[in-house]
Amino acid sequence: MLRLLAALLLLACAAPATAQSASAPPRHDAVVDARHRGAQGAVVRGVPTFRTVGGALAAAPYDGARPWVVFIRAGRYYEKLTVNKPNVTFLGESRDGTVLTYDAASDTPRPTGGTHGTKGSYTLRIAAPDFRAENLTIENGFDFPANARKAADDPTRLVNTQAVALLTDVGSDRAVFRDVTLSGYHDTLYANVGRAYFHRCLVRGHVDFIFGAGRAVFEDCDIVSRDRGDPLNNGYVAAPSTPISQPYGFLFVGSRLKKETPAMAPGSVALGRPWHPGGDPLAFGSAVFVDCWMDDHVSAKGWDRMSSVDRETGRQLWFEPMSARFFEYGSTGPGAVASPTRRVLTEGEVRAYTVARVLDGWEPPR
């Protein structure tokens, strides 16, 4: 009997690690590990292993015949990344421990000359369909507060501080983000092209930190406004530039609008403002909050106006929120203030704002 027990114990110790162990992650096609010291793509425990996320992306197939899963171990990966191959999945080992980061802002010089501009400041750019990310953080690490503390005549002080963490660009569609943190300050999430679904995510920023022309659903998410220390204006949550031909833009459903610090001034954050890039008169922003809880940083007026510079004449143009598609339904919490400038949908009207309709019939995979 003792010999049998000893044999069983030896077999258990020799058995391969389970999918939940650190040495054998869930099913995957590549592993990224900042501690890897072998050659890029060297096979470790039967799987190609890379030091960088970019290295793993380069190895992905172009045909997208099936999901190509990259398991990214905990670590900080300082890389500027573009996903231009379909059906790629990033699976992090730890939501807070697996961090994709870069620190370019709009005015940051590019190595090849000029500056990045808002669109080029991204940390992660999605330019292919069926991308998926789970259980990790995507961050733009540009230090907005440190830059703001610099003297006005400091030559290192940047004026244009837009700094994008995530960009959905031409080619992106059906992008899914689950249990993902998106972190930045000014212009954190540029949801500009295609359809995107965010589930149980955290999006953090202050000025126009969810913006763009795409369709995006935020379900059961935490939308966190960062404190600029201003008693009157601590920013704007959304700045959609939805084309007038597109029936839906951003839908926030069953989510929570929170403030970064208890000291943030009450009533100092607007739900959004209408962005007209280059003064485009055909941008007719859509942002709708359904059954969302709001803390007291949300202002009683709800929405704000926004200016744009006309691309052809150079004139400054102002656009009012009442001309955009800005609505609420079922808001609760200290920031859910009844106001004539906060338009509330009727029970009949809110039925048009479902996840299925906003995503045009696409059902994100569970």
Structure explained in plain terms:
With 366 residues, the chain is mainly beta. It has a domain at 194-366: 3 Solenoid (Pectate Lyase C-like). Helix content is 10%, strand content 33%. The chain has 6 helices and 27 strands. The chain has helices spanning 2-14, 53-58, 117-120, 144-149, 347-350, 355-358; strands at 30-32, 42-44, 47-50, 68-72, 75-78, 81-83, 88-92, 98-102, 124-126, 132-140, 166-168, 175-183, 189-191, 195-199, 202-205, 207-212, 215-219, 222-225, 236-240, 250-253, 256-259, 270-272, 286-290, 293-294, 306-309, 316-319, 325-329. The strands form 3 sheets. It has an 18-stranded mixed β-sheet that branches. A 7-stranded parallel β-sheet has the order 6-9-11-13-16-19-22. The chain has a two-stranded antiparallel ribbon with strand order 25-26. The longest helix is centred in the first third of the chain and has 13 residues, at 2-14. Residues 1-22 have low confidence and may be disordered.
Summarize the structure.
This protein is mainly β and 366 residues long.
Major sheet: 18 strands, mixed
Any idea what the radius of gyration is?
Answer: 22 Å
Structural class: mainly beta
Strand proportion, as a percent range, falls in 25-35%
* Helical content (DSSP H or I, runs of 4+): 10-25%
CATH architecture of the domain at 194-366: 3 Solenoid
- Indicate the CATH topology of the domain at 194-366: Pectate Lyase C-like
Overall geometric form: globular
- Mean pLDDT metric: 93
CATH class of the domain at 194-366: Mainly Beta
